[in-house]
Amino acid sequence: MTELRSPLHDEHVALGAVLTSFAGWQMPLRYTSDLAEHTAVRTAAGLFDLSHMGEIEVRGPGAGAFLDRALVGDLSGLRVLGARYTMVVQPDGGVIDDLVVYRTGDDVYLVVANASNHDVVLHELRERADAVRGEVGDVDVVDRSAATALVAVQGPHALAVVEALDALVPDPAAPADVTPATLRYYACLPMRFEGGPVLVARTGYTGEDGFEFFVDAAAAPALWRALLTAGAAHGIAPAGLSARDSLRLEAGMPLYGNELDRTTTPHDAGLGRVVKLGKVDADGRPLPFVGRDALAARAQSAPARVLVGLQGLGRRAARHGYDVVASTAPDAPVVGTVTSGAPSPTLGHPVAMAYVTPEVSAEGRELAVDVRGRREPVRVVPLPFYRRPR
User: Fold this and answer.
1) Beta partners for residue 113, in sequence order
2) Which of 23, 118, 156, 220 is disulfide-compatible with 7, CB 3.0–4.6 A?
3) DSSP label at 326?
């Protein structure tokens, strides 16, 4: 199968990026070193190509009511130019994908899916729209992924980089009192770049302040180069998938396929807050969204496993799939599984996320991880591992 290429592929090659296969795409793994790119994002700014993500537009008079039935969140209640983290689940509550949804107009929403789940999310939304269209009104589900590029600037200097971008100007139709500087976290703003439309969102996946730019694929190379030029005085560095993963791990953000999958409910992952069981229809009755009954039951039941943070007390890092055991003793039983793990460049010690049994999940509990036959000590700590200075 031929891998897809980002609209920025030639830019990555010109910068000497190491390319890797990811979710059917050829994407930059790193440009210089993982540590340098990670550190740039924590101390200055990093520039990411996220064009492999899926962008699915849901529009029409019934769009909000439909999304309330298709997803676990309250999307009809989302303000225009607001954004919300949510999920699409199976009838049994297992997570199909975690999503960010932007409301770009009264009857227009942009659903952003993970690259590996683009096809299945598109299929689910279309099937679910067909099932309720007669009840909620007209709604169309349109795949905008091929025509859309996504570029992100993340880091403490992200706003300075964006403000230095001379070709980025207000959209005449946008609120006059909102600028990138005043844009709230989890909100978006229509702007213009070199005369063309760009949706600027204050969202990200690194734990830092930052902005994401949804732009026509043809305009992406010019935007990428302009951001590198504008950010040169602010320490910007292009950053690849490897730094993105270590940054999101420090920030305690879940990755689909690691912390989330079809065997996991939002409650298992400590994300029960995104499930809005209180949604009601026009008559005040509980809204029957997909997975509601299973998630309502799960919300009332004791957990079989708990997602926790683990601080490594030695130097060897736990990795995805490693066993968590009750202690460093040779005969200590297995009590969980690592979902993500790596050395933390910011904190200077290994960190990991893991699902463990409830009886060993208390903060401060000392456990161990089997790292290639050696039991390395770890301690249960709160998530996230890292919070940016305010």
Assistant:
1) 54
2) 220
3) S
**Which residues make Cβ contacts (< 8 Å) with residue 4, sequence separation at least 6?**
24, 25, 26, 52
Please state, in angstroms and rounded to a whole number, the distance separating the CA atoms of residues 135 and 243.
Answer: 45
Q: Is 60 left (phi over 0), alpha (psi -120 to 50) or beta?
A: left
Residue 381 pairs in a beta bridge with 309
Q: Which CATH number fits domain 4-53+147-250: 3.20.20.140, 3.40.50.300, 3.30.1360.120, 3.40.225.10?
A: 3.30.1360.120
Question: What is the DSSP secondary-structure string of 132-147?
Answer: HHHHH---EEEE-TTT
Cα distance between residue 154 and residue 210, in whole Å: 4
Q: How far is it, in rounded angstroms, from Cα 26 to Cα 6?
A: 7
What class does CATH assign to 54-143?
alpha beta
Element spanning 212, H or E: strand 210-216
CATH class of the structural domain 306-381 = mainly beta
* pLDDT over 90 at 19, yes or no: yes
Residues facing 188 on adjacent strands: 201
Cα–Cα distance between 260 and 264 in angstroms, integer? 6
**Cβ-based neighbour number of residue 21 at 10 Å:** 10
Between CA 330 and CA 335, with CA 334 as vertex, the angle to 5 degrees is 135
For the chain, how big is the Rg over CA atoms in Å?
21
> And the tokens for 386?
């890292």
According to the model, what pLDDT value does residue 257 have? 97
Q: Which residue has the tokens 């225009």?
A: 80
Please, which pLDDT band fits residue 371 given cuts at 50, 70 and 90? very high
The chain-wide mean pLDDT, for the chain, equals: 97
3-state class percentages of the chain: helix first, strand second, coil last, to nearest 5:
25, 35, 40
Pairing mode of beta strands 323-325, 366-371: antiparallel
